[in-house]
Write a structure and sequence with these properties.
Number of strands: 14
Oligomer: single chain
Number of helices: 6
CATH superfamily of the largest domain: ATP-grasp fold, B domain
Shape: globular
Bound molecules: thymidine-5'-phosphate, aspartic acid
Low-confidence stretches: none
CATH class of the largest domain: Alpha Beta
Helix content: 25-40%
Largest sheet: 7 strands, antiparallel
CATH architecture of the largest domain: 2-Layer Sandwich
CATH topology of the largest domain: D-amino Acid Aminotransferase, Chain A, domain 1
Radius of gyration: 17 Å
Number of domains: 2
Structural class: alpha+beta
C-alpha cells in the first residue's frame, strides 16, 4: 500500500490518501503540543512509540469487541487505517482525579473514583475544545442519539479492558481521551490513537508519571517516560 496525496496534517500526525478510497495512511510525528498548541516541542522517538503502542492496543480492543480503524502497521511510524469521518467529540474517561478535572472542581490529583466518569469536549480549536454534554452534542448535530450511546458503551469497554491490561504491566490507567469515527457504511469505530499522548499512566508502585504530562508540566524525563511505557508493553 502506497501513500498518494497528503489529506491533512494535525499536531501529531499526518494523513495520506491511498489508491483505495476506503483506506488512508497515518504517519506519526515526533512533534508535541500542549496548552492548546501554545507550547510546542519535539519528543524524540514519540511517533514510533505512539504508532506501535496504539496499534497494539487497538488489536487487543478488537478482540474484546470494540471495533477500531486499525488495518495494518506498515512500519515504525506508518499505519493503514480505515478512512472515517471523525465525530468531533473528545471522549474522556477518568478513573482517578487529575488534570482539568482536579482544576475545574478544586480537588487534589489522585482521588480514586468509585465509578469511572465520562465527559465530552467539542473538538473545535477555535473554541478551545469546550466541555459539552450529550444534549449539546445532539443539539449541535455532532452525532445521533444512537451514535452517542454506542460511543459511551465502547468508551467504558475500552476502560475496562485497558485498566486490566495496564495493571498487569504495573501501570495505573488514570484517565484517557478517545476519538471515534464513522466509516463509509456508517459504523462507529474507535479512531485516532491510544498512547502516552492521550492517556495518563502512573507507575503503580511509585505513582511516577509515564506520559505526556511530563512535557505539559516541564518535568523533564519526557523521552525516558515514553521509552519506559514502550518497555512495559513490548519488553524492549
Ligand atoms: P485533561 O485532564 O487535561 O482534561 O485530560 C484528560 C485526558 O485526556 C488526559 O489523559 C490527557 C488527554 N488529553 C488529550 O489526549 N488531548 C488533549 O487535547 C487534552 C486536553 C487531553
Ligand atoms: N495536544 C493538545 C494541544 O496542543 C493538548 C494536550 O495534549 O495537552 O492543545
Amino acid at each position: 500500500m502506497e501513500k498518494t496525496t497528503q489529506l491533512y496534517e494535525g499536531k501529531a500526525k499526518k494523513v495520506f490518501a491511498t489508491d483505495d478510497p476506503e483506506l488512508v495512511i497515518v504517519s506519526y510525528k515526533d512533534d508535541a503540543t500542549a496548552l492548546d498548541g501554545l507550547k510546542r516541542g519535539t519528543i524524540v522517538g514519540k511517533g514510533a512509540i505512539n504508532n506501535r503502542m496504539s496499534n497494539y492496543l487497538m488489536q487487543i480492543l478488537e478482540k474484546n469487541g470494540v471495533p477500531t480503524h486499525f488495518v495494518e502497521e506498515l512500519n515504525d511510524r506508518e499505519t493503514v487505517v480505515k478512512k472515517v469521518s471523525i465525530v468531533p467529540l473528545e471522549v474522556i474517561i477518568r478513573n482517578i482525579s487529575a488534570g482539568s478535572f482536579a482544576k475545574r472542581y478544586g480537588v487534589e490529583e489522585g482521588i480514586v473514583f468509585a465509578e469511572p466518569t465520562i465527559e465530552f469536549s467539542y473538538k473545535n480549536d477555535d473554541l478551545h475544545d469546550p466541555l459539552i454534554n450529550d444534549y449539546h452534542a445532539l443539539a449541535l448535530g455532532l452525532a445521533t442519539k444512537e451514535e452517542i450511546e454506542t460511543i459511551k458503551r465502547y468508551a467504558f469497554k475500552v476502560n475496562e479492558v485497558m485498566k486490566e491490561y495496564f495493571k498487569g504491566l504495573g501501570v495505573t490507567l488514570v484517565d484517557f481521551k478517545l476519538e471515534f469515527g464513522k466509516t463509509a457504511d456508517g459504523k462507529i469505530v474507535l479512531a485516532d490513537e491510544i498512547s502516552p499522548d492521550t492517556c495518563r499512566f502512573w507507575d503503580s508502585k511509585t505513582n511516577e508519571k509515564l506520559d505526556k504530562d511530563r512535557f505539559r508540566r516541564d518535568m523533564g524525563g519526557v523521552e525516558d517516560a515514553y521509552k519506559e511505557m514502550m518497555r512495559r508493553v513490548f519488553g524492549e
